[in-house]
Amino acid sequence: MNQAEISSIVEVHRLAFGKAEGDDIAQLARDFLDQADTISISAKRDGKIAGNVMFTPFVFRDHPETKCYLLAPCGVSPEYQGRGVGKELMETSIEHLRSIGADAVFVLGVPTFYPRYEFAPTDKETPYPDLLTVAEAWMVLELSAGSVQKLSGKTTAIPPIMHAHCWDTSKHG
Ligand SMILES: CC(C)(COP(=O)(O)OP(=O)(O)OC[C@H]1O[C@@H](n2cnc3c(N)ncnc32)[C@H](O)[C@@H]1OP(=O)(O)O)[C@@H](O)C(=O)NCCC(=O)NCCS
Questions:
Q1: Minimal CA–CA distance to 156: which of 129, 119, 121?
Q2: Ligand 1 lining (C-beta closer than 6 Å)
Q3: Structural domain that includes position 105
Q4: CB neighbours of 159 closer than 8 A, spacing ≥ 6?
Q5: What is the 85 CA–ligand 1 centroid distance (Å)?
């Protein structure tokens, strides 16, 4: 990926998440793009990147063989929101994750958006379980049948997002 593309993606997230969160999420997106195993999927409109979603490895320490990902961030430039870009990102990326043999995808996010794509609330732990105050915000999409049920115990995301504030839902509603 070239620098121009990285900058476009980072900017999409900065704008999508607005004044309150934009700078933090943009930095997170930049840090994720530095990691070789990050999956980054973009949707274009009018020849430019209108939306982007990323997936990074998410590990259940007692079940390292189960191939899980964390979905974050997912953002669409305000000028393109509400026009099907988010839907395209979700559908394209889920298809890709299935094709590479992923077992499950976890997300801490808007409880009204992700269930459209068959994500459902989960009782598995976030890396900071005590900070999950909005239980329905922590969701999973199972991609290989039976893979999620057997998961339990402590979880780890990649270093850029292993900070308590990233998992504190009392701050984000
Ligand atoms: C949430 C977001 C990614 C959705 O992308 P989008 O391009 O605006 O969504 P689409 O136009 O593809 O809409 C897809 C469906 O989701 C619905 N939807 C869109 N945003 C939604 C939201 N915030 N909450 C609930 N539903 C939403 C749409 O009504 C649409 O439903 P339909 O298929 O029944 O018509 C985008 O609005 C965004 O970047 N928002 C700000 C950042 C954010 O909140 N990211 C997710 C945080 S976890």
A1: 129
A2: 16-17, 51, 74-76, 81-87, 109-110, 112-113, 116
A3: 3-172
A4: none
A5: 8
For the CA of 107, the nearest atom of ligand 1: 48
pTM summary value: 0.96
**Residue among 130, 137, 128 at smallest CA distance from 156:** 128
Expressed in angstroms, the distance from the first to the final Cα of the chain is: 34
What is the domain count for the chain?
1
Q: Which of 76, 90, 161 to mutate to test the pocket of ligand 1 (most atoms within 8 A of CB)?
A: 76
Q: CATH number for the domain including 162? A: 3.40.630.30
Q: What is the pLDDT of residues 71-107, one digit of tens each?
A: 999 999 999 999 999 999 999 999 999 999 999 999 9
Query: What's the pLDDT score for residue 171?
Result: 76
Q: Whole-angstrom Cα distance, residue 165 to residue 42? A: 26
Which is the closest atom of ligand 1 to the Cα of 82? Answer: 11
Atom of ligand 1 nearest to the CA of 89: 12
Indicate the residue type of 25.
I
Of 31, 12, 27, nearest in space to 80 by CA: 12
